[in-house]
Write a structure and sequence with these properties.
By secondary structure, the chain is of the alpha/beta class. The protein contains 14 helices and 18 strands. The structure holds xanthosine-5'-monophosphate. Pfam families: GATase (PF00117), GMP_synt_C (PF00958), NAD_synthase (PF02540).
Length: 513
């Protein structure tokens, strides 16, 4: 594997994804990881990521200097290059204006740039830059604004680049990463989803043996793919439940019933369509009364959710494990706040209650969303279901700002169904990353017929994203938006205004709470 030391740069995740796309396992690790943790991972190479920090800042993240003595090839990207330069005796200077965007790069002969022409378009995003090389290094790339845009010490196999090879705006970025992996680090390919699927199933068999597993399907892709892997591994010892929280969308249950029929899950307690539905709407509504704070909402929902799962496990009897559809980004976004990153929100399936007796199994804990979809394809789950947009565990509760009530849920469900239906009709649904409607609990004045109205506002949000960590708002044609808006105000009682959210993530998140 290749360890990407994550200094908190916005593209750090992309680096790991690109490495995996090239067939090598990659994971993000914290700069605070001690040297024995790094050794234990037995990486084939190290990559130092970008960072929002400047490397001379007081709290700037650093790596243990012993990292440079492991004999491993290292590629520093942006801040990673600057830190490497400073830690090895060079110098970095701060520039007040940021260099941001595409630029022309002149390169010299280097193993890192094999098969590339001497002039390259690359993407920069930085304020600081290296202005004195450490001993043993030479310049391998320059741009108009950065004399040392690339540096190497080929003896020690240390490379640094000021630009970002991981973003698509650097057209030959993949060649550069591939050169680093295969020409410089001589990395072996070890990341192939087909063989990984076999590994996951075999590991599940070994770990679970003939014990029982309970798992809640959420209606989303992740839990379904995880359940399908488990079904292949342990067959009848998998017990699936579906907790109807009442916070679902209009079509969630029906969609799930359809797909579960085609995946053919069976042998479930009191099983209807291969899974047990636990009707819990009133319990959830009750605990959400007068809860306005987003984190509080997430907490009370998660608590009840896991309590219900434990009740179900008791009914089944002798259940050892609770399986979860957690994927890699869920773990990262809910990470405990650290020096270099804040906790953004408590993802539902990662925030486990204290004292939970069941042991947790997360078959997809290592994978990104697009990899999960590819695994789903290998498992022959119908494509239509794999293309479904993500839907968060706390459901519509985090799309109703403020208190969740039955009335508000009903309004939001109708508005959301219209939005999604029109996106599908227009052939847009599969082109965007995630689309949703949210209810803003403020009322505005309108006029309908000849009468004054005073009703809620529905916010529509649709984002284009690959990894859900960063996202851009979707440029949906105005005629489609017009149809959606007019249908919502005409068909949904209690709404007289529709707005479209045009904020990127960051600074806004995809969900509203
Ligand atoms: P945000 O709102 O943080 O969301 O930009 C990023 C992605 O995560 C989904 N999300 C969740 N998924 N449980 C989940 O399973 C949760 O509690 C949760 N909160 C957000 C969100 O829908 C988006 O795809």
């Amino acid at each position: 594997m290749v360890a990407v030391i994550n200094f908190g740069g916005q593209y750090a995740h992309l680096i790991a994804r690109r490495i995996r796309e090239l067939g090598v396992k990659s994971e993000l690790i914290s700069p605070d990881s001690n040297i024995s943790t790094v050794k234990k991972l037995a990486p084939q190479a190290l990559i130092l990521s970008g960072s929002p920090f400047s490397c001379y800042e007081k709290n700037a993240p650093k790596v243990d200097l012993k990292i440079y003595e492991l004999g491993l090839p290292i590629l520093g990207i942006c801040y990673g290059q600057q830190l490497m330069a400073v830690q090895l005796g060079g110098q970095v200077s701060s520039h007040s204006s940021k260099q941001f965007g595409r630029e022309l790069l002149k390169i010299t002969t280097s193993a890192l740039f094999e098969n590339l022409k001497s002039s390259q378009t690359v993407w920069f995003s930085h304020g600081d830059q290296v202005d004195r090389l450490p001993t043993g290094f030479k310049i391998i790339a320059s741009s108009k604004n950065a004399k040392i845009a690339g540096m190497e010490d080929s003896q020690r196999r240390f490379y640094g680049i000021q630009f970002h090879p991981e973003v698509t705006h650097t057209p030959n970025g993949e060649v550069i990463l591939s050169n680093f992996l295969f020409k410089i680090a001589k990395a072996k390919k070890d990341w192939n989803l087909k063989s990984l699927k076999e590994d996951i199933v075999n590991n599940l068999i070994k770990k679970i043996k003939n014990q029982k597993v309970v798992m809640a399907l959420s209606g989303g892709v992740d839990s379904l793919v995880a359940a399908t892997l488990l079904k292949e591994a342990i067959g009848d010892n998998l017990f699936l439940v579906f907790i109807d929280t009442g916070l679902l969308r209009k079509y969630d249950l029906e969609d799930l019933e359809n797909v579960v029929k085609s995946v053919n899950f069976k042998n479930l307690p009191a099983g209807r369509q291969g899974f047990r539905i636990v009707n819990s709407q009133s319990r959830f509504l009750k605990i959400l009364q007068r809860v306005n704070d987003p984190e509080e909402k997430r907490k009370v929902i998660a608590k009840l959710y896991f309590a219900i799962l434990e009740e179900e496990a008791k009914k089944i009897g002798n259940v050892t494990f609770l399986a979860q559809g957690t994927i890699y980004p869920d773990r990262i976004e809910s990470a405990k706040p650290s020096k270099h990153a804040d906790k953004i929100k408590s993802h539902h399936n990662v925030t486990l209650p204290k004292g939970l007796k069941l042991k947790i199994i997360e078959p997809l804990g290592e994978f990104y969303k697009d990899e999960v979809r590819k695994l789903g394809k290998i498992l022959r789950i119908p494509q239509e279901f794999l293309n479904r947009h993500p839907f968060p565990g706390p459901g519509l509760a985090i799309r109703i700002l403020g208190e969740v009530t039955e009335d508000r849920l009903k309004i939001l469900r109708e508005a959301d169904a219209i939005f999604i239906e029109e996106l599908k009709k227009a052939g847009i649904y599969n082109k965007v990353g995630q689309a949703l409607a949210a209810l803003l609990p403020v009322k505005s004045v309108g006029v309908m017929g000849d009468a004054r109205t005073y009703s809620y506002i529905i916010a529509l949000r649709s984002v284009d994203t690959v990894d859900f960590m960063t996202a851009d708002w979707s440029k949906i044609p105005s005629d489609v938006m017009e149809k959606v808006s007019s249908r919502i105000v005409n068909e949904v009682r209690g709404v007289n205004r529709v707005v479209y959210d045009i904020t990127q993530k960051p600074p806004a998140t995809i969900e509203y709470e």
